[in-house]
Queue: 3 jobs
Job 1
Amino acid sequence: MRVVLAKPGLDGHDRGVKVVAMALRDAGAEVIYLGLRQTAGQIVSAAQAEDADVIGISVLSGVHIPLARQIREAQQAAGVDDIPLVVGGTIPAQDVPALTGLGVRAVYGVGTPIKDVVAGVLALNHGDLNDRDLNQGALNHGTLDGGTE
Amino acid sequence: MITTDSGIPVEPWYGPPEEPGPPPGQPGEPPYIRGPYASMYRERLWTMRQYAGFGSAEDTNERFRYLLSQGQTALSVAFDLPTQLGYDSSHELASHEAGRVGVAIDTADDMAAVFDGLPLEDLSVNFTINATAPIILAFYIVAAERRGVDPARLAGTLQNDILKEFLARKLYVFPPQPSLQLAGDVVEYCARELPRFNPISITGYHAREAGCDAVQEIGLTMAAAIAYAEHFTARGLAFDSFAPRLSFHFSSQLDLFEEAAKVRAARGLWYEIATQRFGAANPHSGRLRFFSGCSGATLTAQQPLNNVVRSTLQCLAAVLGGAQSIHVMGYDEALEIPTEESVRLALRTQQIIAHESGVTRTVDPLAGSYFVESLTSELRSRALALVQEVDAGGGYVHLLEQGVPQRWIAEAAYRSELAMASGERVKVGVNQFTGGGEDHPPRLFEVDSAAAGQQRARLASRLSGRDAAPAARALTQLKEAVTAADANSMPAFLAAARAGCTVGEITDVLRAEFGEHREPPPW
């Protein structure tokens, strides 16, 4: 399973996204972390190039709804809106319906146990017709054109 | 084995040490382990300084007036992300972020509006600003000039610690070397023109919030202080000309004794570094003063009222450690920026500790505790070992460029998450004691969705109302100043601020000259 993780927007809090990346790696997923200040276009192109099974974003500056909307729109424009998008960060419960209404598949607010995040992301792998199994688990970092190094 | 939060083994009980170390001395005297001042809180309480800012300059001005009316003794400005990263509110990347996590500042006019009617000459103001610190300082000086206040009377602190942005906070713009050059320009200018201003606050807080432990927090902070001091002295500044105005910023978390011991250790360590490594002749050059920010990372979204208790313990740890100024988190900050009610409670937390608990009546009340003295000594020697590891690895800036300490922090964060998942680390209301019914969800701060649009309209009217030629000339002169070999760029930043140039315009000049930093791979 391949997971593309990114920090969209201008927020610099990357503790959470790195912890999630390491936990997914230890659960056997291949993680491509794109880094900070990624635009919707960059995230979606990387997800395409990496053949991602899931896209995860982390937002702690309160603008998760407009950023998730931008990414969903970019996914639709690129014809890859079937890649599940999950969102983590400082997200009040009252914002969850708006996010799921945009097509966000799971929301992991502050305080979500790490094992719930991992189980939730892994469960989103079911739609993969190739039925790729979990592999060794790896952490990569993406480049702007979506390749890994 | 029972250990402190940073892994120091803890014995069942403590007695006199087998090999007594050097005596900690007296408060207000070298090596300042017991505090930077002889009388500490008996004469003057710490500065109560809640970090605040959101929406427009007027919104923030109103919050500042409220805080001052409630007994807060100084201000601390939170800037929005576009301001911190050098984008105008009209920039595409600012469309949703303008005014969101701090106040939106585009021009010196906005800064003047933030402080409208507030007594600049009597206030101490902290500015949490780093990559764009020279711009924000220039705007503040210009705001003072317009009010007829002599800039030499301005007091406060500019965070201006760009190295910890690369390390942990991540709001860098330019690569490390030109960033250090700008930080040095600010420090040099303030040493000359703003004698009451702390031109840099060297910060371990964000590394700690990002996941490192107390030993790494003080070790990395000392490594950063060394890197700055080396950079400033290399450009010709005498250590004793800037060191007395260096300030520090630490986190205050929940391991009460370790946190109090941590800052005692940091004071001793900095005195040793200042005198032995930099040959300080002025004893004040080695006198560490610090601001303590209580910890947002320890707060929980579950049962948020529990955070009031956590913040109280953290504030107490900062007081027992001898902080010069303190911010207490709002209990709702795991979810949203704090409401007025929540910041009032945070301020009241400080006031209750200050005026009702009695802990201020004597200086350094934990001194002489076998346990606390042992922790102080152990934290100091472990942090010193980390400083030596950084030296051996090629120095702090080099390691930052390679992403090495960033990886230390991420690994520590992951270990602490795993310890929570396994239940080895207890978090009340999260992984234990979770029953008993849900708290009522707090009434969260309501974000004004119109604020960003209003700020864009205000910027547009300022741009159309200004004289274009002087603004363009100021930007050209700024470009020359930042590329000139020996010139201090602050006068050029001030000229640009007076000419009505915007944060985005000024930062674009710097981006064109310096380029933008790309983070090294995190693994």
Job 2
Amino acid sequence: MSELAHTIIIPRGNSDPVFNGPNLSLKLVVLGSNPNLAEIANTLAQDAPTYPRFVIWYKAPVLSDLQTTFPELNSIDNLKGFSTSTTNKIASKIEGNTTVDFVSVSQAFLTAGLAEFNQ
Amino acid sequence: MKKTTTFLFVFIWFQTNAQVLKIQEVTNSNEKLNLSSLSIVDINSSLEIKLNKDSLNLQIGNVTNTNPELAQEISLLNKLLKDEIEILKILKLNFSSNTPSEQILISDKFSKLMLQFIEAVKTDTTLRQSVNSYINDYFKLPSEERKKYGYYYPYVVKKITTDLKANIADLEKNITKKKVQIQLAAFLNTKAEQNRKVHIENYDSYATGEFYNVPRWVTSFSKEDVSAFNESKELAGNLNSLIGTNFKEIKKFIVNHIASISCYKNLATEIDALYINRNTLFQNNLNVVESLLKNLKEKYETINSTVSSIKSLDNNTPQNNVLENFNSSTQKLLVQINALPEEIKILFETLPANFTTTNSSILDLKSKLETCNTTLKTDFKKIEDALKFSVGIFAPFKETAGVGGTVGKEVLSFGIEDLPKLGYIDLKTTGKRENGAQLKIKIIVKTEKDSLLKTPGTVIEQQNITLQQINIHTGTSVSVILASPYNYDSNIVNLKNKFQFAPSANLLFKWGSRTSKTWNFINPGIGFNISTPDFDLDGAPEVGMGGVITLFNDIVSSGISYNTKTNNPYWFFGLSLPFSTIGLSINSIKTATK
């Protein structure tokens, strides 16, 4: 896997500046062992038509920890990841049965971008 | 929903089963009559044949199959065209407030369009594979190349358009092979001749006295396919016009809103002034300063010439080459202005160091150049953005518009709509015919395969029409009668038997029916009879005249007559014999003189 320049890997990395920083950005949260999703999201994060894009990869996600940032998240059992708006609201979920490719991850980012306009 | 489906089903069923041929009889008084269920027409009338093109399309589709692959490609093309039109409409909002890319990207419409595009791609497995592969390719492009597109969407659009162009061209080639020849033909069956070809005005022509078929090519598209083709053309036209409007704006944006251009222009005037006064101002370093001023002027003139070449691209609806020139000139401008600060720095380094820091004119010039260079940095971003827009949006969109504009051009070049609206058969020109003669009108579809295999094609509809003399008309017949006299003088009439054979001829009045085959079969006639019995048996025939009724095409006849020599009446019955005689003709079957 090439270097994921736009990805913050948790637990080593610190996502606070992205989630709580002053600059608005769209995020794609990757959960568990999904390197393919992380890589595709990282690639798409290089191109940001509206807001900067970041990927936060929780390699060993814990629901209760995630709920501190995303209180609306009920379960992560069948979830590969999700995208969030600039205000950290979950915009689109990538379910366990979703085919992970540029198309589906683009859709997640775009939904997050559009959520910004719908607020 | 259920009701709608049922309605659609019924509608399609009716369309599919509707008759292709609608035939009307045009009487001698120019009255148009619909054919009765028995399809009996006046033998001397004209027929007007109308094609139901919708039904014909569907019937041809049944013979030749439709083109689902092409329909799918056209549907994608139309989707792209619509999206591109929407994107260009967003751009029309306001050019002065933001750079073109900023304007597009800050709009939620753009995100919506992108999302719609991605959602549409998700439902099509093949397209999804292509889009994935193109996005992957895009991110493998060198960053400078990628910058031109700004975002993967224009790159993917460009790639899909290229694919579409190739696919549509391939499919169109195949469709040319799938074209069919349609023939509307009529044949007359009489007692004397079978399958005599009959001329249909508008559908075949006379050439050296013979008929030849005018090939009528139609394609195997459904009504929806043809609408999609037309929609592509309309959308392509709209897109082209929007590209034209936006191109003009972008060009204006580059020429009028680049502040550094006017900054350098003012500077060029100052350089000119310095050059004129060089002998007074730069006595000690005249040669070096002269060279500096010349070179600076040259740099400005080079940039100015590139801007002028962009300015001169005056085309409201830019062709591809105009766009290419615009893109290459703008690219050239970027290279020139990017290199300018460093080049100027090098030029100033040719001056002696103390002179640069002490001569007020040079210090002033240097300071103004630095101000211009700062403006240039902002301008560079704007020009880069405009170029990105032109390369990334206009060029691929122009390509899509090009495909949309030409799609279906060849295959629809002679479409079903070009078939004549009406065909006419003047029955009077069809030659010898009689009551009960059959006219067969056929629609024959011949495919490329039929031509190769020399097979006659498929008759998709045939209508049989019976020709009949309608209304009152006359006819003649001859027969042998068996005459039986009564109220006679036995001295004159010497018959030993009750009946005597005698030849006879009839002039008959008849009338046919459009609505009763039985009546036309019985074919009753009433008229005058003349016969030549020999009641006195002297060997010389007498002349008898009277009335007669005939049935079954004059095979059976019966009547009452009066023998003018023996002065007595007689009744008779008879059967027709298979030979003809000359009769008095009134309102008989007409044949046009050639």
Job 3
Amino acid sequence: MTGAIQFDPIRLSPEAQELRREVRAFIADEIASGGFDPAAAPLDDGFDPDFSRRVGARGWIGMTWPKKYGGAERSFLERYVVTEEMRAVGAPVRAHFTADRQSGPVLMKYASEDIKLDILPRITRGECCFCIGMSEPNSGSDLFAAQAKATKTADGFVLNGTKVWTTNAHNSDYMIGLFRTSPPTEDNRRHGLSQFLVDLKRPGIEINGIRSMAGGDEFNEVVFTDCLIPADHLLGEIDGAWKQATAELAYERSGPERFLETFGVLVELARTLGPEPDARGAEGLGRLVAQLHTLRRMSVSVNGMLEAGKEPTLEGSIVKDLGTIWQQALPGRARDLAALADPVTGDRANFDVILPYALKIAPKLTIQGGTTEVLRGIIARGLGLR
Amino acid sequence: MAPSASVACDGSHGNRPFLSGRRIYDCRHVYTILKGAMTDTDNIIVDTTQRMFRDLADPQTLNLAADDGWKDVLWTALEESGLTLAWVPDDLGGAGAGMDDGFQVLRVAGAHAVAVPLAETLLAGWLLARAGIASPAGRMSVASGLSLANGKLSGTARGVPMAADCAHLAVLADGPDGPHVVLVETSSCQLDVSPGLAGDGMATVTMEDVTPVAMAAASNRVSAEDLSLMGAAVRAHQMAGALEAVLGVAVDYAKERQAFGKPIAKFQAVQHGLARLAGETAAATAAAGSAADTLHNAETFDDAVFLEVASAKIRAGEAAGEGAAIAHQVLGAIGFTEEHVLQRYTRRLWAWRDDFGSESEWALKLGQRIAAGGADDLWPLVASR
């Protein structure tokens, strides 16, 4: 027995379930007032700053953060509940989600107190959107091949180079980006990259949209030409960004967004199959729900273990690997099961709207935020194979 | 039937009676710790079980054993430790352990692929206890689908695991005034035994006016579906344990086996296969563990229990199929031999996924429930806890 993989059976607290009721009531109001339609493909790729402000007003952005930065000092499992309720209905969270999940925690850890007091409260109010500048034209999964440069000058750092596939850059106030500050060393090719906070309103930045095959315009190319940023916008150790991937990665990898991106298809499949499906439909639906339930329990478990101070990094990678593959396969499997559904007893109007969208976004689900191949390499390392 | 004197409870236990008043297999120092720190018994039960299996049921040793003599030695140790009746309360002759502890024991047992009816006896003891019937000493299995008339059992039960090895069968029978839990001696039944995928023996049990040793109305305390759910949860744990062991076997082999001048673990294709095996193992252990926790805390077999247990059996069963295939591919020809330990696990994984309802059977039932509940109740059910 390896004993290396552990998933504690974590349950959500009564407080978290009370919060769930509040979030559901909020969502019901939003749907009723036309804020969004859970049975339709999200408009503008789910980017809606007004919605984000209303979520912020409820205290549900940065909700685990310290109160002095605008947070609510609530638990990660409470944040989990908010995230999964939003994802389950396809709520337009894109204007705040990146900052809430990733950028805020990075600032919390590495930014100066002035920057934290300036930016974090704005994030929690849903007024400040972030994007992540990692990939470049010649550097994707191989993150440490990044070429975009930050050159130290008397006034700060000067940025030159190009980031690409930058989701939401055109709507964002800030980027947290990875830039080369030194060449890699012979014995450590990860050396030489640094993380920076970049105000996207500064001169020297050109943002060009890239339309995706799904019809969305969330992708961008971001070109930096002699863009000067202040010295204190360096986040963490110079040349040492590779050390700064920490426990937060497990949160990023194991959240409910890693298996709920196409969940609407499953709900509409159930509607399509109707109350008394034949054996094929029922068996297929049952399997999908069993798989979803298992993923959710794994995901809740990782979040609960993180909250308890454990470091389930291998488990987090496994959740992302299994979860992203499942949500990618879901539209195709639902399509198969819906094909023979009885059109009289079932209602497939919504299904026919949401399925094409889900099929079109499916390819990206095992690429964004770390490909399947990269994840499996990480898991293999966790098993001691590399 | 009254419990034998040797398993009578000493009555001096604290709030965690498990193992108290009994001899723990060759672990006097553990026993001392148990007395001194009752709060940490979860780990001690697992540690004790692991130690016992390691010493008496090392899979490689069993695989090469000339005869089945080891079975009696292991069984005696398990029985004397109280593990075989973990789910039977003290006053019915058992150890009175928690549901969660019993499942942990079964996960360890699965990781050793043992061919003794520990899981079946645990389950039988649980079934008997639901109707207030004391458990006898010795090995037991469970059966259902038989009929009770005029105080005698008749009918045929198919796929009764390891029945030929068991002195008693705990039966959930249909009676004229509702279901009854019935204890019978196996010797009074007719057994038609086939080896089954696992090679552990699977019997078709036929009874003709068999006189029970004990019987009691099940009332509302246990139904055929409850028994299926418990059996499914039991097998899910054995599969999770076996997959953990298979992952260990495959990873170790990949690190040792050299091909093309380096350990095969260095090849990306092999790494990714093993990463998938780890994922399947993780899914099985997480789903099974969550189901156990739910059963441990549940007062009735409600919708949440159904979702948890059905999902665990489905997902662990899927993982069994996927995981066994990956492990065999990694081990190549040696894994296909009788002398290698891998087949002890993979044949049982294939057998266990069929017992107490296959993936397809549970998925059908679960899907029908979800469909009947309607599309808009799907998420509230999944996110109920």
